[in-house]
């Protein structure tokens, strides 16, 4: 049922089926206009005349631009809600962040996603761009399937590390849910950039088909087969026999190790929420780890902010990221690109339900066993946060009846009439139903302006199923749908929310956690930095190496808005 004028619209959760025909089916336009002269010519003449002039007068480059422009003009309203202008970090290469020349059809999201993002707060520094291009070249030389990789595996088989190896590695191992995995993956890649290592991912079956290959002409996947020297590669807990601290205690590695025994071929880094290897963040131990050819990273943390506390990394991080708030934002847009099956689900849903609106608001809700509260209290916290931060449309009628939405509407496709789409990401449907009921009856927004409000929820899985590929695909779809919002409300401590807001380039309103099951007096805080929180930073470390610049640390590493024991990057 679609109402007119100031009426709100009710939308039930669509069926999770990639084959459902979306209401808006126009093809997105993946290429930016390169020549203003072509645009002006098109506006003053016919399309055919322009193409002929471009071919015979302006030459090949301008002709290509004219054809691209024709594609844009031929599109219908299916592009409502897309970004089409291309200043600094916009455009298919995100201002030089992404490498050129990769196969567009093998990974459509890499060169299309920029059209759906609404915020481009930071561009990659020239230094970061150069570092990434150098890394890509190193990865091509050292990736699986190359002679240098085969040489490194043989050295690994020998049981000892060797000096002078052309290629050394950081191997990411899966730990915890999708949000945690993404954050630890980004942290591991950043560490590889800082130490000139090659980053490989031991992707399990539940994650194998989530992301595209991020580096041109090569693979980031560690081929874990019967020939790989390390058996049972993924640990079953954070107490790992060959973790750095245990080997240090046994004097197998470290400043006091037996030099005649040699350096082990590999070392585990136990960097999960218990942070068994906190000495990793001391400069003198980084010197020891530099001698190990293979480092196996087992982490569920975003530990990037704590790398800034290592003196040897501080200056380099400053050159890579002059704006510290941009670390996760730029690295996630560089490294993570949904594979085609996931991307097709993202854009079909977006075009069908979110694109027609003039404004999109994402609301991500997550509760934990240690901080659960009744659904009524959580719903009221969301409304109070929205009122405090002026996020959700306010209504003149506050009658929130418990009505289950039943009518389907996909929008009018033209983004008119001040329409708002609210997208709910939650394991449960309670909040979708309550917000749907709130906006189900005709209303006029406060201030007298007519508005249309639609409420959507794609899935409600009821429970997290990390080891299930289909579940992870749905979760990744929702992360990207959230990241295409103009405004976000996320849950405190939620890595899912951290990833979404970082990709979006948004400082979200963060719902504060109900510790000890007590509803917080302040419903939420507006993030001062879009960076994720490192929920388990190293504490009380006594490092012998030179300390980092304390004044710089105090300026850029501060307590998280949503967790007093965590730290994050700030500008």
Mean pLDDT: 82
N-to-C terminal Cα separation, in Å? 47 Å
| Contiguous uncertain segments of 5+ residues | 1-80, 82-87, 399-416
Sequence of secondary-structure elements? HHHHHHEHEHEHEHHHHEHEHEHEHEEHEE
- Write down the CATH topology of the largest domain: Rossmann fold
* Overall 3D shape: globular
Helix content: 25-40%
Strand % is 5-15%
Q: How many strands in all?
A: 12
Going across the biggest sheet, name each strand in turn. Answer: 7-6-5-8-9-10
The CATH architecture of the largest domain can be named as 3-Layer(aba) Sandwich
Question: Regarding CATH, which class of the largest domain?
Answer: Alpha Beta
Membrane topology: Single-pass type II membrane protein
Organism: Miscanthus lutarioriparius
EC number: 2.4.1.-
Subcellular location: Golgi apparatus, Golgi stack membrane
What would you note in describing this structure?
There is one protein chain. With 571 residues, the protein is an alpha/beta fold. Helices cover 34% and strands 10% of the residues. The chain folds into 2 domains: 122-325, no CATH class; 340-399 and 415-569, Rossmann fold, CATH 3.40.50. It contains 18 helices and 12 strands. The strands form 3 sheets. It has a 6-stranded mixed sheet with strand order 7-6-5-8-9-10, sandwiched between helices. A 4-stranded parallel sheet has the order 2-1-4-3. β3, α9 (283-289) and β4 (294-299) form a beta-alpha-beta unit. The two termini are 47 Å apart. Mean pLDDT is 82; it is low at 1-80, 82-87 and 399-416. One of its GO terms (molecular function) is galactoside 2-alpha-L-fucosyltransferase activity. It is an enzyme of class 2 (transferase). Keywords: Cell wall biogenesis/degradation, Glycoprotein, Glycosyltransferase, Golgi apparatus, Transferase.
């Amino acid at each position: 049922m679609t109402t007119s004028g100031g009426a709100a619209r009710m939308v039930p959760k669509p069926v999770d089926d990639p084959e459902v025909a979306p209401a808006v089916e126009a093809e997105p336009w993946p290429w930016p206009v390169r020549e203003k002269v072509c645009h002006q010519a098109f506006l003053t003449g016919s399309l055919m005349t322009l193409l002929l002039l471009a071919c015979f007068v302006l030459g090949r480059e301008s002709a290509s631009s004219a054809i691209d422009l024709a594609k844009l003009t031929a599109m219908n309203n299916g592009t409502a809600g897309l970004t089409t202008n291309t200043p600094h970090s916009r455009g298919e290469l995100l201002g030089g962040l992404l490498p050129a020349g990769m196969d567009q059809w093998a990974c459509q999201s890499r060169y299309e996603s920029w059209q759906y993002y609404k915020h481009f707060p930071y561009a990659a520094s020239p230094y970061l761009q150069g570092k990434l291009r150098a890394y890509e070249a190193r990865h091509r030389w050292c990736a699986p399937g190359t002679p240098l990789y085969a040489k490194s595996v043989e050295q690994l088989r020998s049981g000892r590390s060797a000096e002078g190896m052309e290629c050394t590695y950081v191997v990411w191992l899966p730990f915890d849910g999708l949000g945690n995995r993404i954050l630890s993956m980004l942290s591991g890649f950043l560490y590889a950039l800082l130490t000139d290592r090659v980053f490989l991912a031991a992707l399990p079956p539940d994650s194998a088909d989530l992301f595209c290959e991020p580096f041109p002409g090569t693979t980031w996947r560690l081929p874990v087969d019967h020939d790989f020297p390390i058996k049972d590669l993924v640990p079953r807990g954070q107490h790992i026999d060959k973790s750095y601290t245990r080997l240090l205690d046994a004097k197998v590695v470290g400043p006091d190790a037996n030099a005649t025994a040699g350096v082990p071929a590999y070392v585990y880094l136990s960097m999960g929420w218990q942070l068994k290897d906190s000495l990793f963040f001391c400069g003198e131990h980084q010197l020891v780890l530099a001698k190990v050819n293979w480092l196996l990273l087992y982490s569920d943390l975003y530990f990037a902010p704590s790398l800034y506390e290592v003196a040897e990394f501080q200056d380099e991080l400053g050159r890579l990221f002059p704006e510290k708030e941009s670390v996760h934002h730029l690295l996630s847009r560089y490294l993570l690109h949904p594979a085609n099956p996931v991307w097709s689900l993202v854009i079909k849903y977006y075009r069908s339900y979110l694109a027609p609106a003039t404004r999109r608001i994402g609301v991500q809700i997550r509760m934990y066993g240690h901080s659960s509260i009744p659904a009524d209290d959580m719903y009221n916290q969301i409304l109070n946060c929205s009122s405090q931060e002026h996020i959700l449309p306010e209504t003149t009628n506050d009658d929130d009846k418990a009505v289950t939405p039943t009518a389907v509407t996909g929008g009018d496709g033209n983004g008119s009439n001040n329409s708002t789409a609210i997208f709910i990401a939650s394991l449960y449907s309670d909040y979708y139903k309550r917000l749907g009921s709130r906006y189900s009856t005709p209303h006029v927004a406060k201030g007298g302006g007519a508005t249309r409000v639609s409420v959507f929820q794609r899935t409600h899985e009821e429970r997290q199923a990390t080891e299930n590929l289909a579940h992870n695909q749905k979760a990744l779809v929702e992360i990207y749908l959230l990241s295409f919002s103009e405004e976000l409300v996320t849950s405190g401590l939620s890595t899912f929310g951290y990833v979404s807001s970082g990709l979006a380039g948004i400082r979200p309103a963060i719902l504060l956690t109900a510790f000890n099951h007590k509803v917080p007096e302040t419903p939420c805080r507006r993030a001062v930095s879009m960076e994720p929180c490192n929920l388990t930073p190293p504490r009380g470390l006594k490092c012998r190496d030179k300390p980092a610049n304390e004044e710089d640390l105090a300026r850029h590493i501060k307590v998280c808005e949503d967790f007093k024991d965590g730290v994050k990057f700030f500008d």
